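Q: What does the assembled structure look like for these inputs?
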Amino acid sequence: MRKKDGIVVKKKKLSTADKVFYTITYTVFILLALVCIYPFYYLIINTISRNDYVDLGLVMYKPIGFHLKNYVNLFKLENVANSLFISVSRTVLGTFLPLITTAVLAYLFTKEHMKHRKFLYRMTVITMYFSAGMIPIYMNIKMLGLLNNFWVYVIPGLIRVYNMVLVKTFIESLPAALEESAQIDGAGYAQRFIHIIFPLSKPILATVALFSAVSSWNSYMDTLLYITDSHLYTLQFTLYEYLNQATAIAASINSMTDMSMLDKATQISTTSVRNTMAVVTILPIICVYPFIQRYYVQGVMIGAVKG
Amino acid sequence: MAKNTKKHKTKKNGYKSVYERDGRKLFWMALPFVIFVFVFSYLPLWGWSFAFVNYKPGRNLLDCDWVGLRNFTTLFMQPVMRNRLMEVIRNTLGMQLINYLLMPVPMFFAIFLNELRSVKFRKFVQTVTTLPNFISWVIVYSLVYGMLAVDTGFVNNILKELGIIETGISFLTDSNHVWLKMALLQLWKSLGWNAIVYMAAIAGIDHEILEAAEVDGAGRMRRIWHIILPQLIPTFFVLLIMSIGNFLNTGMEQHQLFSNAMTKPYIESLDLYVYNMGIGSGLISYSTAVGMMKSVISLVLFAGANWLSKIVRGTSAF
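A:
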């Protein structure tokens, strides 16, 4: 085993079998890492290279003719700026509102003397394993007047049951004495929640907030199902439209092409818009990824322990 | 907490009523939330009634003709519909079968990664392979779109440079090996993430056992085979059992994105079928019937998995 005694650092000599093993394993893992990271790198270098070279497929390993015009041009497209706004709003609202509702419900469910607690809790938890199906849910959303409504992005996700269970488990692990002392001092449930439980639950709440933020940002099924008004499209969905429908993207581009400024290297094109937009869509995920790594793993572990 | 309850129950009547009143107060506080859950998760169940009527868009449910189980029988009896349904079931089962065959891959990924000496390298591989889990399928699609483009894509360029092919392969609009491609994409996206659980399980193995085995002259492969692997098998089975309940949920996002005229006959899974028929073609009644059967079968699978887990592990999996 690897031992770091500090005093005697023995370097074991590798046997031939070990050498073969390490060579093969390292090679396989390097290849795997490349397969995972290269598509991202490839996408990025294609957005900052000469557009005419990109269209010919010449940019393979490193950027050629560096320029950032694509990013400037992208936001001149009307739908892009608008869908970015929609995406950001839904992510912000879809992260913080559910955080509050989920935490409050989790806290309430930790109180064992709540009347009919078992019944309410079971009813809530069962929804994780059972769904009425896509069409009935669609009809329900329609009945509630949420079709083509911005709030369809936020309201149905207000209570995320899985997250609620995680938070509840965490609150139950806190020492009960803290709350009891506040109770003796005459603090009601609301006060105890705001001043004691909420601040103490920060680690799990951060995890849950990240869960919600990533899934809100990434979600595109809800736009596909419930939204037909292009002013309410999210970034993910506009990107999907651009990838699938050459006409949608061409219309956007044509509306802004200024013939006097034609420059092959930086001229906006279908490919440049698609690639640049994809990078813009990934960027927030890459930015929060270091935090995700720290918190998500914790979250998974809690989830795995508790089931 | 349990102790707390008992203490209160033994208290005098006066205390008990205060305690009960408090319990009722909590009930009223939690109720709005549960009603909310009810509205978005239970209320849609009324929509199941669409499966038993001949629904016409724009009409009130009560004005539609009641047809009983005719929608269900049509799905299985009418030749065209039956063929498509069978195709969809075949696709769902086929793709899931490959996914299940690939299920041990993250376990072996974790085992071999753990054997490497450099902590930095291990961290790096984990970080890089977990990233795809956090990006959306739309992004995966656009990455694949760029990498595999017919004339200009990276993969086709490399293959051409190496002289393996003359003209570009159109990976995405090709009806061959669709299931395998989809399964591999899913593996690409989830490999690092799914390995985390196994990495944690390996970290939990008692080092003394491994050291004892080493002293006794067990080589690397023997230690993996006789000590590490047996310790991971329980984790593997828990995950396997838990996945049974989701057997029919193949994830429609991926299939919807990658489906086109060429791939559609092989990529259309149950979820996508319901979407295409219900939202796409407006056949609300038929698609509700299909979705309903899917929900019921899922529930049965879920109950079965739970029962299996109780027998095998003595606890319920969920």
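Chain B has 15 helices and two strands.
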